[in-house]
Specification:
Layout lengths: L2 E3 L3 E2 L3 E12 L5 E11 L2 E12 L4 H13 E2 L8 H8 L2 E8 L7
Parallel strand pairs: 2-6, 3-7
Antiparallel strand pairs: 1-5, 3-4, 4-5
Length: 107
């Protein structure tokens, strides 16, 4: 539906990233997700942005999260496309947590 970006930060001040994905499957078998991204800066988690509702199946949520990171983190431009390789390239942890929800309104 809409990607909402909360703030921009410099890559050098970020310790790690957290991507929280809520997945929901409708009665026809279509899968949708919402995605919330935060960054650990110092000793605080700062919200970077979120995607409210979008179509995607499997692990698509992590790629939505990476798009939010690309849009909000200055200096984040990895050459790699696979999550664990991106972590190695940037030398920072990116945690992805998936939650399957039963109702659309729980997204």
């Amino acid at each position: 539906m809409a990607m909402i970006l909360t703030q921009k930060v410099e890559m050098k001040i970020v310790t790690s990233f957290d991507i929280k994905v809520n997945r929901w499957t409708d009665s026809h078998g279509n899968t949708y997700h919402s995605c919330y991204v935060s960054a650990l800066i110092g000793d605080r988690w700062e919200d970077l942005g979120h995607e409210t509702f979008t179509y995607g199946y499997g692990t698509q949520g992590e790629y939505t999260g990476l798009e939010i990171i690309k849009e909000t983190v200055i200096g984040f431009n990895p050459k790699e496309k696979v999550l664990h390789r991106i972590e190695e390239e940037i030398n920072k942890e990116i945690t992805v947590r998936y939650y399957d929800v039963k109702r659309k309104k729980d997204m």
